[in-house]
Structure formats: structure tokens, C-alpha cells
Specification:
By secondary structure, the protein is an alpha/beta fold. It is built from eleven helices and 17 strands.
Length: 419
């Protein structure tokens, strides 16, 4: 945990430019001596929340008490949200409507499925792969999730293992007792979907490698592994996540790290992704911003949602992603770049978000660094995915608060809203 805490010290020393960028964008941090300038109350919101779930609202299956307090502020007496809220999680081993129902029960207010973004939700945009035969890895309602995303021809790791029993040889108890014959009529696999961490890592790692090394025909062998390999779409690069245990647990990012390392060790080449979704991917935040805008339009709020506040507990996914998205928004407004719309990319609209402020809470992965441990000056290891280069300034949150209730209070004060 001390290593995670050192991120803040490292960023403070090497990422001062980010404070200046936050200030220039109107994202100044909490200053107890000076307080916030509070403007007149607004009848309709011009801001919205992107809320992480694990470590912010819940720990495992237990709701964090501060989350209940936060939603008492966010919900009006009629039981409706006062501002647009989207839940952005890197979890993926659950159905969207199931996660919405779970949040509704825990938070005591209605959460609609279109307010929930799972790590793999943006895969709906990768329509060029929807008609391909894809091997899908993860757990939970894998096939239903894949089909909801648009993939109609999916094969699970268990189905592949059944078709080719000789492939799964690590577990002595599951090894076939006789020499099995592979299915000769098994259609070739055309790509790989990694939706979340599987249960039996050794089986999934082995069979995914078999598919990549055989160009989708794991019952055969090739003298030379094909490269580029079959397309791989992955979601959730979190190395760690927070449940009931005192220390963080391995996330899907750890599984991806294993797969990438094995592939490089075996082939001498890098595993490549056609798409890498979930926080901190800008694509995920674009998707969330589009849902925030649609939510505001449905509620009839006339004011454009120009400011987004992303609340999370993980510096490497929540803070890094929000800050990276803020950079993207600033560049888009300067250069007239494109944003994500229902039909794909389109020209940035005047009603689109202009800023995204990162708010880090201390109820999950992140823990404030012990001042006594800050004397060593040792740099924290980089916990992010290799495809997101280490930029210390992007790891510095615009605001650090104790919990999500303090985050909501901070934003309401900043926006001049009554608590």
C-alpha cells in the first residue's frame, strides 16, 4: 500500500504542470484556508458525475456508508437524480442490467441499465468484428454479454477445451485418461475477446495461446507462429482492485500481463490489441460523456453538461483516465476534433463537455502516504498497462478527499449548489 501512496509524492514532485493545467481549466483543488467561490443556485445542472463503483461505492458486496450519504444529496425528494450520473466500472463479469439492479438495491435509488458502463461496453463500437467467430474469455454470463455487445459467433474457453481435450494439460486430475481425438469439423476461430478475469487462469492462458499460435485452428500445429496474430479485443486493464480484504486483489490487468509475458517469451514478439477498453482508455470516457449528455436530454435539462467530475479510488485507472480525457477535451475544443456520438465519431458540438476533473477517494486502492515513509524518495512502481505510457502528471488528482460523500459536497460547493 505504501507503494501506491508514493504515487502522490512522485506526482507532487514531477507533475506540478498538472496543477497549472487544472487551474487554467477551472479545476482548482480544495483550499481550506480560502474555501470555494459559491455562485447562485442553478435550476438545471451544467455538470455531471462519472462514478467508479468498487472502492468508491462498495467494497465487495458491502456498500460504503459514505455512498449512502452521497446519494441522499444527489437524489431529490421525488427520488430522482438532481444531476446526471453515470457509473463507470472496470468490472465486466456481470450483465449491465444486473449491475444496475445491484446498485439500485445497495444505494436505495433507481439506477437504469443505460447509466452503467462496464469495462467492455465500448466494444459495441467495434462492429467490424461482430460477425467474426470469436473466442471469449472471462466468467459469468459470457455468451450473453458478448451477444449484447454485438458478437454473434462466440466460442467459450470451456467449449474449446471440450472440442480439443488434449490442450488442457496442467491439472493432472483433468487430463484425459486416453488419447482423445480433436473435432475435425470445428470452425476456425477469427479473433479473441477478453472480457474479464477467468476462473482457471492456466486453462485460459494455454488455450488463448493455442488459438493465437495456430491462427485460429488449435487442433493443428504451425511451424511458425503467424504475426500479426488474430485480432484481440480486451477490456479492464486494472492490475489491482479493492474488495473486502485489507489488501488489493489481482484484477484482469494481471491476467493480461501474464498473457503478454507468455506470448513475448514464446514468440519473441509483442502481443497486440485491436482495442483496449475500460478505464483509463479515452474511448471509455467518450462513451460515458455521450451517455451523460443523453441522460440530460431525456430529463429535459436545458443547460449543456460542460463539466464532468470523475470520482475513483485507483490512481492508475480512475485518475489517469480522467486526466487523460481532460487533455483530450481541451485539445478537441482547441482543434475542433471529433467526439463520440451515437453513430460514431462526429465533429465536436458546442454542447459537449469541456472539462473532466479527477477526484480521488481514500476508501479503496489508494491510501494517503505515511509522511514517515516519504523520506526515502523511492519511486513507486508503475502499475499501469504497458500500452499507457507512464506520465506522472496524469496520476495527480485535481482533488483528494476521504470518500464519495466528500466528493459530492466538494462539487456542489464548487458549482454553487445547495448541499
Amino acid at each position: 500500500m505504501a507503494a501506491l501512496g508514493r504515487v502522490a509524492a512522485l506526482c507532487a514532485a514531477r507533475g506540478l504542470w498538472w496543477r497549472a493545467a487544472c487551474a487554467a481549466a477551472g479545476l482548482r483543488g480544495l483550499c481550506p484556508q480560502r474555501g470555494y467561490a459559491v455562485g447562485p443556485a442553478q435550476s438545471s445542472p451544467t455538470f455531471g458525475f462519472l462514478l467508479d463503483i468498487d472502492g468508491v461505492l462498495v467494497r465487495g458486496h458491502r456498500v460504503i456508508p459514505a455512498a449512502l450519504e452521497a446519494f441522499r444529496r444527489l437524489v431529490n425528494p421525488q427520488g430522482q437524480l438532481r444531476v446526471p450520473v453515470v457509473f463507470v466500472t472496470n468490472a465486466g463479469n456481470i450483465l449491465q442490467y444486473g449491475k444496475a439492479q445491484e446498485l439500485s438495491d445497495l444505494l436505495g435509488c433507481k439506477v437504469d441499465p443505460d447509466q452503467v458502463i462496464l469495462s467492455h461496453s465500448p466494444m459495441k463500437l467495434f462492429s467490424q468484428y461482430h460477425e467474426k467467430r470469436m473466442l471469449v474469455s472471462g466468467q459469468g454470463p459470457l455468451v450473453e454479454n458478448a451477444r449484447t455487445l454485438g458478437f454473434q459467433k462466440v466460442v467459450t474457453v470451456d467449449e474449446l477445451r471440450t472440442a480439443f481435450p488434449a490442450l488442457d494439460m496442467v491439472d493432472l486430475e483433468r487430463r484425459p485418461k486416453t488419447t482423445p481425438l480433436p473435432k475435425s469439423d470445428f470452425p476456425a476461430i477469427e479473433g479473441v475477446l477478453l472480457l474479464g478475469e477467468p476462473v482457471r487462469w492456466e486453462t485460459s492462458l494455454q488455450l488463448i495461446m493455442d488459438v493465437l499460435l495456430s491462427n485460429g485452428k488449435p487442433g493443428t500445429g504451425l511451424a511458425t507462429a503467424p504475426y500479426p496474430h488474430l485480432p484481440v479485443l480486451a477490456s479492464n486493464v486494472d492490475l489491482l482492485w479493492m474488495a473486502e480484504a485489507k489488501m488489493p486483489r489481482f484484477g484482469h490487468g494481471t491476467f493480461l500481463l501474464c498473457l503478454e509475458t507468455i506470448y513475448r517469451k514464446v514468440t519473441g514478439k509483442e502481443l497486440r490489441y485491436e482495442g483496449l477498453m475500460g478505464k483509463p482508455s479515452v474511448l471509455t470516457y467518450q462513451y460515458a460523456a455521450a451517455l451523460i449528455r443523453q441522460q440530460a436530454e431525456r430529463r429535459g435539462w436545458p443547460g449543456p453538461i460542460q463539466k464532468l467530475y470523475a470520482v475513483g479510488d485507483n490512481p492508475m485507472s480512475d485518475v489517469y483516465g480522467a486526466n487523460l480525457f481532460h487533455q483530450h477535451l481541451q485539445k478537441a475544443w482547441r482543434d475542433g476534433a471529433q467526439e463520440l456520438g451515437p453513430g460514431g465519431p462526429r465533429k465536436q458540438q458546442p454542447s459537449a463537455a469541456q472539462s473532466c476533473a479527477s477526484i480521488l477517494v481514500c476508501t479503496g486502492v489508494y491510501r494517503p502516504r505515511d509522511p514517515e515513509l516519504a523520506q526515502g524518495g523511492e519511486e513507486s512502481p508503475f502499475h499501469g498497462h504497458r500500452d499507457f505510457s507512464f506520465s506522472p502528471g496524469l496520476l495527480e488528482a485535481c482533488h483528494v478527499v476521504n470518500d464519495v460523500d466528500e466528493a459530492v459536497q466538494l462539487v456542489f460547493r464548487k458549482e454553487g449548489w445547495a448541499l
